[in-house]
Every structure is written in structure tokens, then in C-alpha cells.
Design goal:
Number of domains of chain A: 2
Largest sheet of chain B: 8 strands, mixed
Distance between the termini of chain A: 31 Å
Radius of gyration of chain A: 23 Å
CATH topology of the largest domain in chain B: Rossmann fold
Helix content of chain B: 10-25%
Oligomer: heterodimer
Shape of chain A: elongated
Largest sheet of chain A: 7 strands, mixed
CATH superfamily of the largest domain in chain A: von Willebrand factor, type A domain
Largest interface: A-B, 43 and 24 residues
Mean pLDDT of chain A: 85
Shape of chain B: flat
Number of helices of chain B: 9
CATH class of the largest domain in chain A: Alpha Beta
Strand content of chain A: 25-35%
Distance between the termini of chain B: 43 Å
CATH architecture of the largest domain in chain A: 3-Layer(aba) Sandwich
Number of strands of chain A: 11
Structural class of chain B: alpha+beta
Low-confidence stretches of chain B: none
Chain lengths: ~300, ~675
């Protein structure tokens, strides 16, 4: 599969953006993200009284002259985060609409670029079945990133996916060290909520990106239809459905989809996670500069 | 029973088979690959619960589609129901001309007989056919249907009816003496044509038509028919001499004729005298005028042997003076004594030579010249209608003699009133100073009421009454300066009044005919501005109408068969004696009498005085009927509905088209229902 979004012009536009991650995260030394812990930067943060064992070089002698007490001058700390992007690589992401898969890859690439551009680490976890593959390892720096992206564009969307199993079973899910993004259409009976709960438990900042094709939002077929699930293996598969699509059924579909997205949104809100649902025919820039800015993950 | 114009159209029903095959072959479900059926499965919970009837929708749609195909096939097959109308071309409408000229005889057979015989034969032949239908219309003075759409089952009855037209003899022959109502006959034929436009119309007549239109004219005239007849006759009174003028004509041949005029004198020698003309040559189709003049031939130049020629007019002179005559009979006959084909116009009679006497009494104490002059003028004006005798009486010179209250037809009492009103005539009371005991009104004896000097009273009233014809009920026509107040006037109708006081009253019932004018002609200028003369003329016309007048109201004594005659009566009833001797009485007037046969008619009426008033008038056949060679430009237009093939059937296409539209709509509705 060849992406149509990833080009130099696209990435150059992303250079003006950065991921806005929570300050509670611990992260690693050497990044650019301000955290609540005190560190060795030059940016003043606070004072506290000297305690035995503190480095006497950090005593503020000016204050001592005024209060005849020893105070230490504290500075902010900046950390490096590890952004983990779980990408649903099941057939549902591309078999029915190739643009949907390309859009998902582009979204993953854009988020990854924002990470490496801000000196964070990135890893792509491709969800295939109940497993999450990490073919590119931890990516640090743009050179590594672009190499990985070159390969990411060629991944195949096939089979099914179990988001919860893949996320919870991932050996590199991380803990309190950054953002985890799950990119999927979430049109699955699999309990994705477990994955969110697990990541929250692991103190990860979580964001769910739902990508839907226009046909999924507004089906344009009617009458007697044999709906073949893209992840089904045979025509007799239980996931396939025979339906007479009527106006009332379309209305019911619209209502069901709306409720499903609403449930995603409310669950994420209840867990402190961010949620974005986009159509794959929406320009990617609008998703990045619009939807992601709106939820606050982008700054 | 429904039938099909194009049964092959039913092949369209094969579409049902095609539809079923399509249903069988049609893939029930189109394959559609989607990302996930997860939302669809969720949506099933949201779908409204379907009614059980919805499961029948598919079946109903199939049923509708089958019916649509059936309707289309039926439309292609052009279904129809054979019309109940008998659109058969073997129907005949036979119209017989029963006008007077159809009585023309040749070789002992009249035209009418020939027409009837031909109609009889043709009807017999037509009704021999299984689907033959015959209608027979008689175009007499009023068109009538003798037989209406009779078929073969009524053949004997129809033939009897047609045969009955001839009767036992000429008197029973149902041929009129009037003009035929051809237009009415054609309208009756038209009614039949509306039922069956294919019917053929045949008109049996001797009149030729240049453009008979859709009617087939069957000529029943024969070679050799000819006629000389009296077309018209009239009387003129000039310088107290009567002139009897006669228009004669010959048709079918030019011939010489002799006219005889028998005058039955009523004065002097009551015996008739006869005036004969020399042979008068009549050119075929040209009307010639002959006059019989009852004045000395010495009064004119160029009279030789009692005959003179004034242009084309031949005048025969008689030295016998005629003051009055009972009747004048005029005959015409061929100079060679041969008989023509039509004898009904060979004689006319003229009446009216002795006007009825009308006695008028004018009694007054003042004797105004107005009434004297007015009555004299009336006598001259109505000299042809009435012989008016006027008696004038000065009431102040009567002495012991009583004022006459009987023996007159018209009483005019001015100022001085009789004790009782006459009961045998019309009474006109002018400026009454007292009230006759049986007058029915009461005059205020205290004296007249006068308008202020130089003023006239304001007058109102009823100008719609016949007495007020040509007059307005206002002071402009009746300027009055003084009048006698009348206190009560039961049974009188007020025509004019000043305020509440009547100034002109009329009473017209069987026993009493009274007009009361309670003002003097000296107290009004109505007499000199013609209002009063007009009122008296109106009184004459109202109370003394001529018994017989033509449609224009002119007194006449010679009419044509079928002409409208207005009858009036001075009494409660008038009796007309027909030429057959039968009598017909009339009690409401004016009434219109239309004679249906030629000959002498008498009329009589009982007057209010108890006297019997009698008179006569003659009715001749219409002048146009004398023309045996009559040719008309065209028959009255007869509308024949245009018959197309579709008119012979009741087309069901419309109904099937409506059903098709309804089914398509239903099918669409079901589809919408199913897809919702």
C-alpha cells in the first residue's frame, strides 16, 4: 500500500506543532517536556529550606542574608516521553476502503513525527489479531523515523484485531512515560475498554483516534444486501449479515453509530483519555489542526 | 359483456411470466463488503418493531405488479362493451309532408296519398329486415311522431298506423290545410338521429329543395299538376265605395281564368249580384291583381264594357252601389272549365261589410263641446268597426222626462247624475255632483275642492292599467285645479288620485262597467293636451274591443289556416263556430285562436245589455300552399352526429387506464412502505 499523505511538505507543516502531554508523566531525562518534578534547567521554579545532604551550591545566599536561613533555589525539569502508537492493522481498516488505511497510517506518521520532532521516542505497535507487533523498535530522531515511515506505508491490513488483547499483552506498553495512541475504526465487538483501562492503570496518557470511511457513516446502499464483513473469512461467516436495508434501518444504523461514538467519547472522558473521530475523506490537516487541537493534545 | 378489439394485446400477459422469472432469477441479496457489520448488528436493536402486515408487503407488491401487467395487457387489447345503442344503418326516419299543398290531386290521387303509400311500402320493406327500425313523423301544422323507432315485431301495428293516415275519405285524411311544420319535423328526426346517427332520413314532399342536406327528399308530385287560386283578398272603402281586391296566381301552367264576385248586399236589395271578369291570363308563377269596384264606371276614364286596366291591375266596375254587405264571395275557375289540382284556394269570402251598431248617450247639463267633438271623431275613426249613433241630451231641458238609463251601449253623464246607474252598457261619469244610488261610491256634496289660484294639484296613480296606456299618472298629463271629493269608492280601482282623494276610478266586472272622473273638463287642460282624448280612446279599446283581430290588433275578417287570431269579448264569454259546425267557447280574454281548417267561422257573444253580438270571418289556406311547384333553397338544418367506430362501443380504456394509474400508485406506495 502506498500512502498518499506522507511527503516533505506535509511534515514541514507539522514542525510548527508539538504534542501537549500531561505534566504528571515521569518520562526520561533529556526531553523537552516540562514536568512537575524539579530538575537542572535554568528556569526557576521554587524555593525550599535546605535539608541535610542537599547540594550546598544551590543555596540562595541572598535569601540567607535576608532571613538568616538556608534556602535552596529549585528549577523546573524537562523530560523525554515515549509515544506508543497502536495501529489497527485488521482488514476492516482497508479492505472495504483503501483510503481509510492510508489515512490511519498518515495519522500515525503525523503523531510519530510530532514526537520525534520534540525529541521524544516513538514506537509503532501494529495490532494483528491479539498481538501487537513492533517492527521498528523504539524510534529516536528523525532519520530513524523516516526510515520507519517508509516501511509503515507498505504494511498490509489483513485479518482481524483484538485491541484489548494486543494492548494488554504488549511487552512494551510503558508506564507513566508518555502518550499511547490507538488508531482504529473501533467497529469491533472486542472489548477495547480493557485496553484503555489498562493504559490508564499504567499511567499512560491515552488518546483514541477513530477513523471511519464515508460509507460507514452514511451507507449509500439499500434493498436486499448481503453485508460481508471485511474480516470474515468465508461467506458463511457469522459476522456476515443478510439485510433488507430500508429507510428505517438506515435511520437505526445512524442512531446506533451515533450512540457507539458517543459511548467511546464518554468512556474516554470518564477515564481521562482523549477521543477523536474523523472521516477518512476529511483532509488530514483538518484532523491535525482541528480535531487534535480541539481536544488539547496538540499545542 | 366485455369484448376486445385487439385480442392479441393479451399477449402482454406473458409479462407476468417474465415478472415471475425475474423474481426467481433476481439475486436476492447484493454482495456488499463493508469494514464491519458491528454497527449493523447494533442497529437491529434500534429498528422499530415491524407490524406483521409488513411481511405481506412483498407479496402485495408482487400482486400489484401482476395487476399492473394485466392492466397494461388489457389496455393493449382495447377492451370494450358493445354499446346498448342501436347504431344500425337499417333504421329509417320517414317524414311525411302533411301541408295543404299535399292535398293536390292528379288522376284521382292526392300527393299525400302517394306519400303515405310510399311510406307504407318502404316501412313494410324495412321491417321485413331483422334489424330494421322505422320512425314515421307527420309534418302537419305541428310536427308529431306517428311511429317511434318501431322494429320488426311491431310491423303490423306500424302499417296500420300509416294506413290510418288516409282515413276513410278526404275528410278523415290527416293532411292539414296549413303549412307544414317542417322545422319541427326535422327536430323530431334529429332526436332520433341522436340515438342512432346512422338512421336515414327520408322526406316525402312535393316541395323541391336545392340543398336537402343529409335528408333524402322523395318527390311525390306528378307531372301535370297545376293550380290557379286566390292568393289574397281585401276590402277597401274609398269615398264610401267598396273595392274588393283579389290576388290570383297560376302554378304549373299558364292559363286564362275567370273570376266571379258575388256581393250579398245588406242594404236595399238584399239579393246578391255577381260581377264576372273577362278571361284573365295568368302566367305561371306570376301573381295578378283583379279589383271589383262597386262604383259607377263613369267616375273613371278608360272603362269599356265595365272593365278597365290600370297597369297590371284588371278592374271590373259595377254601378250597383253598396252601402253595407253581409258577405262577398269570390270564385276563380279556369276559362276552359278544366279543373286544377288544388281546389281549396278557388274561393274566399269577405265579411265585415256591416259594422255593429254602437249607441252612445251623452247627457250633460253643461254640454261641453269637448265630448261632442270627441264622439264625432270616434265615429269617423271606428267607421269600419262600428256604426256609432250618438244621442246628446241636455239634462236641464228634460223637464218631466227622465234621464235615460237603458238602451245604450255607452253612457256619458256629465255633472248631472242619474238616480241609478244603467246596467246595459258602459258608464262614464264626469264631474258627478251626486252619487247614483247603486253607483258604489259617495260624492262629498259639500262641493268641490280647488287648488290655490294659479296652482294645480299633484297627481299620482297607476299608469299600468290599460285605460292609462300612453298616459302618465301625474299632473303633467292631468293638470287639475278642482275636483269633487269622493268619500267612499268600494269595488272601484283607483287610477288617479290627489293625495288620498281619487280623481279617476274604474270598475269592470260582469254586471257593472263604470269609469268615474270627478272633475270637470273645464277644471283641467287635459282635454286640450290630448290626455283626455287618449283616455277616451283607451276606454273604447278597453270596453269595446273588436271580437276578431289579427296578431297586430287590426280588425280583419280574412285569415289563413294556422294564422294566430286574437279573440276579445265585451261580455263574459265568446263562442266560435267552426266550419264543421262545432262550437268552442272562450271565457278569458284576449285569447289566441289558431284555425286548422279553411272555411267560414262564426263568433257570437252575449253583451252586458243582454243582446247577442254575432260576426263571421273566413279562413283560407295559406297563400304559399297554392304554389304546387314550390321550390325552397334548403331544408331546415338537421344535425347528424358524427359516428365513429368508437361511438358504437363503450370504450373501457379509460377505466383500465385509471386502474393502471391506481395500481402504479399503490405499487409505489407499497415500495415506499417496504423501503422505509
Amino acid at each position: 500500500m502506498k500512502g498518499t499523505y506522507l511527503n516533505t511538505e506535509f511534515f514541514s507543516r507539522l514542525e510548527t506543532l508539538a504534542l501537549n502531554l500531561r505534566k504528571e508523566l515521569a518520562g526520561f531525562f533529556g526531553g523537552k517536556h516540562l514536568v512537575r518534578t524539579y530538575g537542572q534547567t535554568v528556569e526557576f521554579a521554587d524555593y525550599r529550606e535546605y535539608m541535610l545532604g542537599d547540594d550546598i551550591r544551590r543555596i540562595d545566599w541572598n535569601l540567607y542574608s535576608r532571613f538568616e536561613k538556608h534556602f535552596l533555589k529549585l528549577f523546573t525539569d524537562e523530560r523525554q516521553m515515549h509515544v506508543r502508537i497502536f495501529l489497527d492493522c485488521s482488514a476492516s481498516m482497508a479492505k472495504a476502503n483503501a483510503q481509510k488505511g492510508a489515512y490511519a497510517v498518515a495519522a500515525a506518521a503525523a503523531l510519530g513525527f510530532l514526537a520525534v520532532h520534540n525529541m521524544d521516542k516513538v514506537s509503532y505497535q501494529l495490532i494483528r489479531g491479539s498481538r501487537a507487533e513492533n517492527p521498528f523498535g523504539t524510534i529516536v530522531g528523525k532519520n530513524s523515523f523516516f526510515r520507519a515511515i517508509g516501511e509503515l506505508e507498505n504494511i498490509a491490513f489483513e485479518g482481524d484485531s483484538e485491541i484489548s488483547a494486543a494492548v494488554t499483552g504488549s511487552p512494551d506498553s510503558g508506564s507513566n512515560d508518555g502518550l499511547t495512541v490507538i488508531i482504529s475504526d473501533f467497529l469491533t465487538e472486542n472489548d477495547w475498554k480493557k485496553a484503555v483501562d489498562y493504559l490508564v492503570y499504567k499511567k499512560r496518557q491515552v488518546m483514541l483516534v477513530q477513523i471511519l470511511s464515508p460509507e460507514e457513516i452514511d451507507p449509500n446502499y439499500s434493498g436486499r444486501v448481503n453485508l460481508i464483513d471485511a474480516e470474515s473469512e468465508a461467506i458463511e461467516d457469522a459476522r456476515n449479515m443478510k439485510l433488507r436495508v430500508t429507510h428505517s434501518l438506515l435511520a437505526a444504523y445512524e442512531e446506533a453509530l451515533k450512540d457507539m461514538i458517543g459511548e467511546l467519547r464518554s468512556f474516554c472522558a470518564s477515564r481521562g483519555a482523549d477521543f477523536v473521530s474523523v472521516r477518512c475523506d476529511t483532509p488530514l490537516e483538518r484532523m491535525l489542526f482541528g480535531e487534535l487541537l480541539k481536544v488539547g493534545i496538540m499545542a | 359483456m366485455m369484448d376486445l378489439l385487439m385480442p392479441l394485446g393479451l399477449l402482454g400477459l406473458l409479462g407476468i411470466i417474465a415478472l415471475i422469472i425475474i423474481y426467481i432469477l433476481k439475486p436476492n441479496y447484493q454482495q456488499k463488503v463493508i469494514s464491519s457489520t458491528h454497527v449493523w448488528k447494533l442497529s437491529l436493536r434500534y429498528r422499530r418493531k415491524q407490524l406483521p402486515i409488513n411481511r405481506l408487503l412483498s407479496l402485495l407488491i408482487l400482486l400489484c405488479q401482476i395487476l399492473v401487467i394485466t392492466a397494461c395487457a388489457m389496455i393493449l387489447a382495447q377492451p370494450f362493451i358493445p354499446s346498448e345503442e342501436d347504431y344500425v344503418d337499417s333504421e329509417r326516419i320517414l317524414v311525411i309532408d302533411a301541408s295543404a299543398d299535399m292535398r293536390a290531386t292528379n288522376d284521382g290521387t292526392t300527393r299525400f296519398e302517394r306519400a303515405v303509400e310510399q311510406v307504407y311500402a318502404y316501412s313494410s320493406e324495412t321491417l321485413m329486415q331483422q334489424d330494421g327500425i322505422v320512425t314515421v313523423i307527420l309534418a302537419g301544422d305541428e310536427a308529431s311522431v306517428l311511429v317511434r323507432r318501431a322494429d320488426a315485431t311491431r310491423r303490423a301495428e306500424v302499417l296500420d298506423l300509416i294506413d290510418g293516415l288516409l282515413g276513410e275519405d278526404d275528410s278523415q285524411m290527416q293532411c292539414t290545410y296549413a303549412q307544414a311544420d317542417v322545422d319541427g319535423a326535422m327536430r323530431l328526426a334529429e332526436e332520433i338521429l341522436q340515438i342512432n346517427p346512422l338512421a336515414q332520413v327520408l322526406f316525402y314532399t312535393a316541395t323541391s329543395y336545392a340543398d336537402p342536406g343529409p335528408v333524402t327528399v322523395v318527390d311525390v308530385s306528378e307531372e301535370g299538376e297545376w293550380n290557379v287560386g286566390i292568393i289574397d283578398a281585401s276590402v277597401a272603402l274609398e269615398e264610401n265605395y267598396y273595392t274588393f281586391s283579389v290576388d290570383i296566381a297560376a302554378y304549373g301552367r299558364s292559363t286564362s281564368v275567370i273570376l266571379s264576385c258575388e256581393v250579398y248586399r245588406a242594404d236595399g236589395d238584399p239579393v246578391r249580384f255577381t260581377l264576372d271578369t273577362p278571361a284573365v291570363f295568368c302566367t305561371d308563377g306570376v301573381t295578378t291583381t283583379v279589383e271589383f269596384r262597386t262604383r259607377p264606371s263613369s267616375d273613371a276614364d278608360g272603362v269599356e264594357d265595365g272593365v278597365s286596366y290600370d297597369g297590371d291591375v284588371l278592374a271590373v266596375w259595377s254601378d250597383v252601389h253598396v252601402n253595407f254587405y253581409d258577405r262577398v264571395t269570390i270564385y276563380i275557375q279556369s276559362a276552359d272549365a278544366s279543373s286544377d289540382s288544388f281546389s281549396y284556394d278557388d274561393r274566399v269570402e269577405l265579411y265585415g261589410g256591416r259594422p255593429e251598431t254602437l249607441n252612445i248617450l251623452y247627457a250633460s247639463s253643461t254640454m261641453t263641446s269637448f265630448f261632442s267633438n270627441m264622439l264625432s271623431i270616434l265615429r269617423m275613426q271606428y267607421s269600419l268597426a262600428w256604426t256609432i249613433n250618438i244621442t246628446e241630451v241636455r239634462t236641464d231641458q228634460l223637464g218631466d222626462e227622465e234621464l235615460a238609463t237603458s238602451g245604450y251601449d255607452f253612457y256619458i253623464y256629465e255633472t248631472t247624475m242619474p238616480d241609478t246607474l244603467p246596467t246595459d252598457g258602459v258608464v262614464f261619469l264626469v264631474n258627478p255632483q251626486s252619487s247614483p244610488s247603486d253607483a258604489g261610491f259617495e260624492v262629498d256634496t259639500r262641493g268641490s275642492v280647488s287648488a290655490p289660484n294659479g296652482y294645480i294639484f299633484s297627481v299620482t296613480g297607476n299608469s299600468a292599467h290599460p285605460l292609462m296606456e300612453g298616459l302618465s299618472a301625474s299632473e303633467s298629463d292631468f293638470p287639475i285645479t278642482a275636483y269633487m271629493p269622493i268619500l267612499s269608492w268600494d269595488n272601484y280601482e283607483t287610477l288617479l288620485s290627489v293625495g288620498e282623494d281619487p280623481i279617476l276610478l274604474v270598475r269592470n266586472d260582469v254586471s257593472s262597467k263604470v269609469v268615474v272622473m270627478p272633475f270637470s273638463v273645464n277644471d283641467s287642460t287635459a282635454a286640450i293636451q290630448l290626455s283626455l282624448p287618449t283616455l277616451i280612446y283607451n276606454m273604447f279599446n278597453y270596453f269595446f274591443p273588436s271580437a276578431v283581430t289579427d296578431a297586430d290588433g287590426t280588425v280583419a275578417s280574412l285569415f289563413e289556416v294556422g294564422e294566430e287570431i286574437t279573440l276579445n269579448a265585451r261580455g263574459p264569454a265568446l263562442t266560435v263556430t267552426l266550419p264543421s259546425g262545432e262550437t268552442v267557447s272562450y271565457e278569458s280574454f284576449p285569447t289566441v285562436f289558431t284555425p286548422d281548417t279553411y272555411g267560414l267561422y262564426g263568433h257570437s257573444q252575449q253583451l252586458i245589455s243582454g243582446n247577442l253580438s254575432e260576426g263571421s270571418f273566413y279562413v283560407k289556406v295559406a297563400a304559399s300552399e297554392s304554389d304546387l311547384t314550390r321550390a325552397e333553397a334548403e331544408l331546415p338544418e338537421i344535425v347528424v352526429p358524427i359516428v365513429s367506430e368508437e361511438d358504437t362501443i363503450q370504450d373501457l380504456l379509460l377505466y383500465f387506464a385509471i386502474a393502471l394509474a391506481a395500481l402504479l400508485f399503490l405499487e409505489w406506495l407499497l415500495q415506499v412502505k417496504e423501503n422505509y
